[in-house]
Amino acid sequence: MVPLRIALLQGPAGVPPSRQEGLAALETAARNAAAGGARLLVAPELFLSGYATDPAGRAEPADGPGARAVAGIAADHGLSIAYGYPERDGNDVYNAVQLITPYGYPLANYRKTHLFGDFERKFFTPGDTAVVQADVDGVRVGILICYDVEFPELVRAHARAGTELLLVPTALMRPYEFVARTLVPARAYESQLYVAYANRVGVEGDYDFAGLSCLAAPDGTVRARAGHDGEDLVLTDVDPARIAAARRDNTYLADLRPELYG
Question: Which of 60, 87, 120, 146 is the catalytic position?
Fold first, then answer.
């Protein structure tokens, strides 16, 4: 298979003054990603709203005006876009990520299942679906959000369900840089899949986001990484052949005995 070129948007901290300003930043990233040959752009957790804000005031349905605007950007630049936003569904607000196709229609929507800290538990309802997947240019893509990837059971569930590229929009804060540096590559290695980790960077409210966005490969190597102190757009390739090689050389998945684990 032909490798899938992806772009990781390491976005700035700060609450966008308006949805239009957040969308303008996404449009610029999409234009640059497409110019670099990317077929998929991954933006951070809660990209459209900002993280340190009252999500309820900026929440909207999965088919709301923000989604329609992102669909237009995806169609204009001919690439898929995964972006974080606060999703309203009735009285509930979810920390969500939506994946939009290059044709401008929604392909998948995931709601964060493991909420981090008092702030998230105050504002969000946890999702109840562990594995959400879609196909992007022949690559089986799954979605988790930030803290979710720190639970090996979730990543392994994706691997067993056939996920080849796990998208993880995140808002990783200092002093937890070890998650990006050590834990994310370990997750990729132990489940033999790619992990695309797209973080925020800079100070927002009480939070100092750590950057270090990366693509970790199924052999545990980091194929590309952003720095810890600035905005970035990281272009890198997901090669399905590496997945087959990793699963041949490392037999974790073949040797699993799930009947023992409950």
Answer: 146
Sheet holding 133-136, edge to edge: 133-136, 139-143, 165-169, 194-198, 214-216, 222-225
- 112 noted as active-site residue: yes
Q: Which of 120, 126, 117, 141 is nearest to 4 (CA)?
A: 141
**For residues 221, 224, 228 and 230, what is the CA-based torsion angle, rounded to 10 degrees?**
180
Read off the amino acid at residue 156.
R
Q: Considering 45, 87, 164, 204, which one is annotated as catalytic? A: 45
pTM of the model: 0.96
Q: Work out the angle at residue 223's Cα, subtended by the Cα atoms of residues 40 and 47, and round it to the nearest 5 degrees.
A: 40
Active site annotation includes 214:
no
Catalytic residue among 60, 112, 164, 214: 112
190 assigned to active site: no
Instruction: Convert the pLDDT of each residue in 27-56 to its tens digit.
Output: 999 999 999 999 999 999 999 888 988 888
Q: Own/partner pairs for 21-27, CB < 8 Å, 24+ apart?
A: 22/47, 22/48, 22/49, 22/50, 23/48, 23/66, 23/69, 23/70, 23/73, 26/70, 26/73, 26/81, 26/83, 27/73, 27/76
- The predicted-structure confidence for 93-102, as pLDDT tens digits, reads as follows 999 999 999 9
H or E element at residue 223: strand 222-225
Tokens standing for residue 241: 């052949």
Please list, in sequence order, all residues whose beta carbon lies within 8 angstroms of the beta carbon of residue 229, skipping any fewer than 6 positions away. Answer: 201, 211
Q: What whole-number distance in Å separates Cα of residue 179 and Cα of residue 156? A: 17
Count CB-CB contacts under 10 A for residue 122.
Answer: 10
CB count in 10 Å sphere of residue 105: 11
